[in-house]
Amino acid sequence: MLEFAPICIYLVISLLVSLILLGVPFLFAFNSSTYPDKLSAYECGFDPFGDARSRFDIRFYLVSILFIIFDLEVTFFFPWAVSLNKIDLFGFWSMMAFLLILTIGFLYEWKRGALDWE
């Protein structure tokens, strides 16, 4: 159990720092004379119009999903580049196969028009 002591200390310290950072604003906050317009949902001077839950074009979702996929794939490059001298040719060709699959997926999306906005 002694080997977990640093982790427990770290968790206790992080919990204390979090609680302090959450509690300090309440100590220094003061109640100013707020007016009703300040407490309204919008401060821009006009009533909201339309529904906030309107439908978005499917292209927004598609682009965001594609961004997440390719952004997460790029995160594999840094550990690979750092450990490339230890993983030798097997690691190199494994990443080349990974990049080939990624490139094929990108070309497929491009051909299908997933990246065309108009």
TrEMBL record:
Which top-level group of life is the source organism from? Eukaryota
Which keywords accompany this UniProt record?
Electron transport, Membrane, Mitochondrion, NAD, Respiratory chain, Translocase, Transmembrane, Transmembrane helix, Transport, Ubiquinone
InterPro entries from the entry?
NAD(P)H_OxRDtase_bac/plastid, NADH_UbQ/plastoQ_OxRdtase_su3, NDAH_ubi_oxred_su3_sf
Question: How does the record classify its membrane topology?
Answer: Multi-pass membrane protein
EC number per UniProt: 7.1.1.2
A molecular function (GO) held by this record is: oxidoreductase activity, acting on NAD(P)H
Gene Ontology cellular component annotations, sorted alphabetically: mitochondrial membrane; NADH dehydrogenase complex
Regions that span the bilayer:
7-30, 58-82, 89-108
* Localisation: Mitochondrion membrane
Entry keyword annotation includes Ribosomal protein: no
Q: Which reaction equation describes what this protein catalyses?
A: a ubiquinone + NADH + 5 H(+)(in) = a ubiquinol + NAD(+) + 4 H(+)(out)
Q: Mainly localized where?
A: mitochondrion
Query: Which PANTHER family would you find in this protein's record?
Result: NADH-UBIQUINONE OXIDOREDUCTASE CHAIN 3 (PTHR11058:SF9)
Family listed = Belongs to the complex I subunit 3 family.
Question: What role does it play?
Answer: Core subunit of the mitochondrial membrane respiratory chain NADH dehydrogenase (Complex I) which catalyzes electron transfer from NADH through the respiratory chain, using ubiquinone as an electron acceptor. Essential for the catalytic activity of complex I. Core subunit of the mitochondrial membrane respiratory chain NADH dehydrogenase (Complex I) that is believed to belong to the minimal assembly required for catalysis. Complex I functions in the transfer of electrons from NADH to the respiratory chain. The immediate electron acceptor for the enzyme is believed to be ubiquinone.
Designated name of the protein: NADH-ubiquinone oxidoreductase chain 3
This protein's species is Daucus carota
Which taxonomic lineage does the organism of this UniProt entry have? Eukaryota, Viridiplantae, Streptophyta, Embryophyta, Tracheophyta
Recorded name of the encoding gene? nad3
